[in-house]
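ok, trying the design again with the full structure, not the truncated one.
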C-alpha cells in the first residue's frame, strides 16, 4: 500500500478537481484523507482502488457508502491494534 496525494487521486479516479473529491467525501462516496504532514493529506492507495473497483462493478451509491464506511472502520481497527 502507498499513499496517494491529490494529483494521483484525481488521476486514478477521473475526478477533475479537488472540489469534486471533497464533494464525494461530504456525500459519503469517498474516504477521507489521512494526515501525512502538518499541512498535507493523502489517501491510502488500496482504499482508492477499492472504491474504483466498486464503481467499475456498477455498485450503487448506497453500496459505495457502505464500502466507505467499512474502509473507515478498518482504519479504526488498525489504529486500535
Amino acid at each position: 500500500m502507498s499513499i496517494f496525494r491529490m494529483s494521483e487521486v484525481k488521476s486514478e479516479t477521473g475526478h477533475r478537481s479537488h472540489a469534486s473529491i471533497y464533494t464525494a467525501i461530504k456525500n459519503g462516496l469517498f474516504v477521507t484523507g489521512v494526515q501525512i504532514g502538518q499541512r498535507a493529506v493523502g489517501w491510502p492507495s488500496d482504499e482508492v482502488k477499492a472504491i474504483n473497483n466498486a464503481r467499475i462493478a456498477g455498485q450503487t451509491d448506497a453500496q459505495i457508502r457502505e464500502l466507505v464506511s467499512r474502509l473507515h472502520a478498518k482504519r479504526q481497527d488498525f489504529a486500535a491494534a
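Keeping the full-length input from now on. The two ends are 18 Å apart (CA to CA).
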